[in-house]
Write a structure and sequence with these properties.
alpha+beta, Nucleotidyltransferase, domain 5, 5-stranded mixed beta sheet
Length: 564
């Protein structure tokens, strides 16, 4: 396919000689008949690969440098190319040296302090051991694996955090194999950005969750089970509690972790069995070369595993760990508010809407069971209707003006931020809020001087306005506002009355459409051209007073031309 497009592929390489049988010798990277032996390596994507044994190798050339400046140290660290993180514990030690140089504010071309220079020189001497590292490229054991497991481990220290992922396979015969797939490391923040160890453990778990998500999206195999392990019981408690229970720092990271991997997939592992502990502490190449815990992971079985469940560990947390868990718990503030509510009166107003008179008559009948002196007469008396209306008005005022009513009952003025402050509200003998006003010395009735206050958004307000609108022959909004203010003062009453007027179906049907008079045709003298003053008109104005010895009225005569 590439050949048809003019792309001639060269430098073919394979660990199987049969795969290169049809490839020309000039296009092969390594001549299998001559060069393919145990020492032949091919550099692929920055890594050295040995086709004969199908293993990755690491090559480190120790430079002969007399002085180790900050610039040279950074160059040597960058030469350790490890995209898969197979040498993460070693590279972490190198990163820690660079972090220390930044902490000491060493210039680029300046020599580090004596102890740090000696430590780096000794570390570089150990890096020559990397030339003996051989890592198998094939991580899936067996030709036909029966099940494939993906296990991840995370750990953190005050110096670094790390995460590593292992792929475990079981073939049909029950043979188990485990190999390191990749890892990731980061240094812990220093200076003013230092944080607690449980938070670092949580950051390591975030790093592991991201790493597992990336691996899962890249490898093209069916994963039977994904599991994550950490040696922090505090992190497991945070994951089990959910994101909504904790403060912002923990909540955001718990939400991200559980997005990639649910909390049920996380378990506890002892620190001695955690391979990520090597990343958080760092290791020299000699400690890493034959370390089975790093290259193959801890001993694990699909039936027994290598750790107890999360629930048993969370139940046995120490006092210090319990304090660390509770320190990140979101503080809950509980406010007890006594709210007035009377669903019976609300249901009554809704049921008899929009008939105010029927509502008051039914309520007055019900009130007769409470007031025995009203049972003597079978017909309802006006004061009974008035008593029923006061009950609904007081109910509405308690719902909408609760704080103002409480302050007035305590003989205090309403708050200056209240919408009733400008009206100088007061309480009458029935406990209703009325407008104070300045008309006490007028001869008007008490209801006009001190109208009852009503909110604009209440069902009782609309009932009263609709009743006044109907009883006053469907008057307009301005007349309706004037009529209602004989007894009630509605907050923003002008807009409320306009709304009631617009909602009246009878008024909408009876409102005639405006008629516009059709103008007649213009006369010919107005539309045809004529010489100036062919058609004239005479205008008279007066009499006008004139100033003189003999004052007489004057008439103003004006000749106007219709055309010009």
């Amino acid at each position: 396919m590439f050949e048809s497009g003019g792309f001639h592929l060269r430098k073919w390489a394979s660990n199987c000689t049969a795969a290169l049988a049809g490839v020309p010798i000039l296009d092969i990277e390594v001549n299998t008949a001559i060069d393919l032996d145990d020492s032949t390596t091919i550099k692929a994507l920055g890594m050295h690969w040995q086709p004969c044994s199908d293993e990755f190798k690491f090559v480190f050339h120790q430079p002969e440098i007399s002085q180790h400046t900050k610039r040279i140290i950074l160059s040597q660290i960058a030469s350790l190319f490890d995209p898969l993180g197979l040498l993460a514990p070693v590279i972490v030690k190198a990163k820690l040296v660079m972090q220390k140089l930044w902490e000491l504010r060493v210039d680029w071309d300046a020599n580090p302090p004596g102890e740090l220079t000696t430590y780096w020189h000794s570390f570089v001497q150990h890096l020559s051991v990397l030339n003996n590292f051989q890592v198998p490229r094939r991580v899936i054991g067996g030709c036909k694996p029966h099940r494939i497991y993906l296990h991840g481990y995370s750990d953190a220290s005050e110096r670094a955090i790390g995460a590593c992922v292992y792929i475990r396979t079981i073939d049909e015969a029950g043979n188990l194999s485990s190999h390191l797939l990749c890892s990731k490391s980061k240094l812990a923040p220093i200076g003013n950005h230092r944080t607690t160890l449980p938070r670092l453990e949580l950051c390591a778990s975030v790093l592991l969750a991201r790493l597992i998500a990336n691996v899962q999206s890249i490898i093209n195999v069916t994963i039977f089970e994904i599991h994550a392990w950490t040696d922090s019981q505090v992190v497991l408690a945070w994951l089990k509690g959910g994101a909504s229970k904790w403060k912002t720092f923990v909540a955001n990271r718990v939400a991200e972790i559980t997005t990639h991997l649910p909390a049920i997939n996380w378990d506890h592992i002892n620190t001695q069995q955690n391979p990520a502990d090597l990343i958080s502490r760092g290791a020299i190449p000699e400690q890493l070369r034959d370390n089975s815990l790093w290259w193959n992971g801890p001993v694990w079985s699909p039936k027994s595993g290598h750790s107890q469940s999360t629930d048993s560990y969370v139940s046995s947390v120490t006092l210090q760990e319990a304090q660390q868990i509770g320190r990140e718990q979101k503080t809950m503030s509980v406010s007890l508010i006594a709210a007035y509510q009377n669903s019976f009166l609300d249901n009554m107003m809704t049921r008899f809407y929009p008939d105010l008179l029927m509502l008051l008559r039914v309520t007055a009948r019900l009130l007769r069971f409470r007031y025995y002196n009203s049972r003597e007469n079978s017909r309802l008396l006006p004061y009974e209707i008035e008593r029923a209306l006061r009950i609904y008005v007081k109910h509405i005022q308690q719902l909408h003006f609760g704080s103002e009513l409480l302050r007035l009952q305590q003989k205090r003025e309403v708050s200056r931020h209240s919408s009733l402050n400008q009206l100088k509200p007061m309480l009458d003998e029935c406990g209703l809020i009325r407008v104070g006003g300045r008309l006490q010395h007028s001869g008007l009735s008490y209801d006009v001087i001190h109208p009852i206050l009503l909110p604009r958004q209440s069902i009782l307000t609309f009932l009263i306005l609709q009743y006044d609108h109907a009883t006053h022959h469907h008057c307009g909004p301005q007349t309706l506002l004037a009529v209602s203010r004989r007894r009630f003062w509605i907050i923003r009453g002008a807009s409320t009355t306009r709304k009631v007027y617009r909602q009246c179906i009878i008024c909408a049907k009876a409102k005639p459409a405006p008629v516009f008079q059709q103008m007649g045709q213009l006369p010919s003298d107005r539309v045809q051209p004529h010489p100036p003053f062919s058609i004239t008109g005479v205008d008279y104005a007066g009499p006008l007073d004139t100033v003189g010895r003999r004052a007489r009225g004057a008439i103003l005569n004006n000749f106007a031309a219709s055309t010009s």
